[in-house]
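Progress against Task 2.4 (sequence-to-structure conversion) is shown through the following example record, which the project officer requested during the mid-term review.
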Amino acid sequence: MPVPVRVIRKYSNRRLYDPETSSHITLDQVRDLIVAGDRVRIEDAKTGEDITRSILLQIIVEREEAGRPLLSADLLEQLIRFYGGAMQEFFGNYLERSVGAFVEQQEDFQKQVLDLVKNNPMADLAKRNLALWNELHGVFGNTWRSAPQKKDSDDEES
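Structure tokens generated for the chain above:
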């Protein structure tokens, strides 16, 4: 089922407004929405023009400058070379499909690891052992705690 698109409006004062929450939001909050899996469409509040790409590029630029970049200078140079060339449209589609395939593979891998952990017989054994330990601790715990403490020879001498 496709994820519904969340519309965000950008006003002339450069503020972003989320009608769903009736509040102004920041670029970081837009990023958080995207990371959480929401799809967004950012519109100019006055004209209704779709300005999503420019806002998303702004978010990428901020993230690239903030820490360890995802896009190296060499990669950016190569991307620039494709603009205006005969292969621009093909390359854009290729990148989109490649990243989509990568995301699907990552999700499949995570699901396989989760299934492996859930269906791991050693995990069941560990749970049973822990339950047995807790049961034994409950039975013998009071006995161990109530047993008289032996004094050290040093304590007796003082």
